[in-house]
Amino acid sequence: MFAQRIQHLTSSIIREILASAQKPNVISFAGGLPAEGSFPDIDWSVLPNKVRQYGMSEGEPELREAIAAEARQKGISCDASQVLILSGSQQGLDLVSKLFIDPDSNVLVESPTYLAALQCFNLFQANCRGVNLSSQGPDIANFEHQIRDYKPRFTYLIPSFQNPSGTCYTPESRQAVAALLDQYNLPLIEDEPYCELDYDNLAKPPICSFMKTAPWIYFGSFSKVLIPGLRIGYLIAHPDLITPLVRLKQASDLHTNRPGQWLALEYMNSADKPQRLERLREFYRVRRDAFAAALESEFADLAEWQIPSGGLFFWLKLKKTVDTRPLLKIALEAGVAFMPGEAFFAEENPPHGYIRLNFSHTEPELMVEGLRRLRKVLLESDNA
Ligand SMILES: Cc1ncc(COP(=O)(O)O)c(C=O)c1O
Questions:
Q1: Residues 56 and 99 in one domain
Q2: CA-CA distance, 85 to 65, in Å (whole number)?
Q3: Among 119, 122, 145, 353, which residue is least crowded by beta carbons within 10 Å?
Q4: Could you tell me if residue 46 is inside a domain?
Q5: Residue 191 Cβ < 6 Å to ligand 1
Q6: Dist CA 217 CA 237 (whole Å)
Q7: Residues 185-198: pLDDT tens digits?
Q8: Residue 11: left (phi > 0), alpha (psi -120 to 50), or beta?
Q9: DSSP secondary structure string, 44-55?
Q10: Alpha-carbon distances of 207 from 35, 144, 175, rounded to whole Å
């Protein structure tokens, strides 16, 4: 009855967990939720009448202009005609899948990578191949080897405060990746939802800003800096790619919701945007530091980790290489949620012994208690 691709439609472990993790007695380090305390108040009564009408598939012209201007400041050579407003940057994953993936196409992703990207590429029957990632960025020799072996349709990378590992590529690594992609004319999908959540002021030039010949698509999002429920993201595409992407967007949902775009533009134009962003960074920096201290007191003998310079996650390598998936159910019963690391790997037999912990959504007072519950689960489980 259903299309063949539906066999490849896996359920997202994240969504299932978010449901149980919302119980009042559960301390959740699972989802990538921004803190509700960071959301601005909205006065919808001043919403202009015109944005209640249908709009353009590309998005609101002023918002596209503002996004292009900001991107140029980051070094991306572009104009507003290359910007497409999306229903969350997640929609960009759907559109690029439709643009590039045939059954059995190869796609290169980081190992580990964003699990909802894997879910989307797999639905379109791609073979996702993982490129090794170090704390500086991808292993270039391994990357090149895989480009030669698999002839992928594109590569999908999250260079700044990567989900799940927190890795931020160095500028040198970004340059090296750009040169490699140009050399093989391999299209880049550069996904940057965490770029602004930078707590240590790292240099983060976009990879696409170094690219001279290969096609690229850059994704950005208002979810982490404004309100995720608005579902406003965008892509900026190489001129050769924007027309089919706009048509795919039109076929998919006509256009992104206009009230949300209006609010995103208000944010972009607000005189105090730099101060708002700095307040947000400070809010999360405090949480990051509180979580690092809680980990140090509760997990020092159980795991290793790097303190992330941005984003929303700690990525832990457990000292015992256990399959963390069966532990999730036990942890939820014990009142704590986490993300099993296996979910973030493209391989059918993923490596064991990793977990992702979100630090942005839990009040600092509850962090130690949550980690104590998780510690107990790890220590008491048979296979830990
Ligand atoms: C790497 C990555 N890409 C995309 C998204 C989706 O973001 P949006 O809310 O803009 O759809 C997320 C959300 O957590 C993410 O971590």
A1: yes
A2: 11
A3: 145
A4: no
A5: yes
A6: 4
A7: 999 999 999 999 99
A8: beta
A9: GGG--GGGGS--
A10: 29, 16, 6
HSE of 309, CA atoms in CB hemisphere, 13 A: 15
Classify residue 44: in a domain, yes or no. no
Pocket test residue of 14, 18, 84, 114 for ligand 1, highest count of atoms within 8 A of CB: 114
Is the backbone of residue 147 left (phi > 0), alpha (psi -120 to 50) or beta? alpha
Count of domains for the chain: 2
Q: Which tens digit of pLDDT belongs to each residue from 16-69?
A: 666 777 788 999 999 888 888 888 888 889 999 999 999 999 999 999 999 999
E-state strands within 41-113: 83-86, 106-111
Q: Which domain holds residue 345?
A: 4-39+275-380
- Specify the residue for token string 């009042």: 24
Q: Are residues 164 and 297 in the same domain?
A: no
Greatest C-alpha distance within the chain: 61
163 lines ligand 1 (CB under 6 A): yes
Distance CA 321, CA 299 (A): 15
Both tokens of 225, joined, read 């800096």
Domain boundary among 269, 290, 312: 269
- Phi, psi (degrees; rounded to nearest 5) at 3: -65, 155
Q: Verify whether ligand 1 is closer than 6 Å to residue 260 (CB atom).
A: no
